[in-house]
Design goal:
4-stranded antiparallel beta sheet, elongated, 120 residues
Length: 120
């Protein structure tokens, strides 16, 4: 059974930095796209950044120049380096990945989320 487990969330002051990690575990054949989404309080979930297996990235306009997504394919892990954090970055951050397991087609998986709170 595949699981995505996020870590690295917490409380930080505006202007500070955090690094989120998400590790995929289970009997994994391959991982295609991986990404981070977030859901601010009272709002819908939104894309933050995604990265392909080849390393191509795309970002939400609101985080361009401040956040960097990266991945370690050997560790089945995706990272999100968040710099110059703003109070409006406060949200639950979710990891997402397209994973193929042995004997199955590709499926989309979600982590349970990690809370990031940015104080002003």
């Amino acid at each position: 059974q595949v699981q995505l487990v996020e870590s690295g969330g917490g409380l930080v002051q505006a202007g500070g930095s955090l690094r989120l990690s998400c590790a995929a575990s289970g009997i994994i054949f391959s991982i295609n796209g991986m990404g981070w989404y977030r859901q601010p309080p009272g709002k819908q979930r939104e894309l933050v950044a995604r990265i392909t297996s080849g390393g191509s990235t795309n970002y939400a306009d609101s985080v361009k120049g401040r956040f960097t997504i990266s991945r370690d394919n050997a560790k089945n892990t995706v990272y999100l380096q968040m710099n110059s954090l703003k109070p409006e970055d406060t949200a639950v951050y979710y990891c997402n990945a397209d994973i193929t397991t042995i004997g199955t087609n590709v499926r989309n998986y979600w982590g349970k989320g990690t809370l990031v709170t940015v104080s002003s």
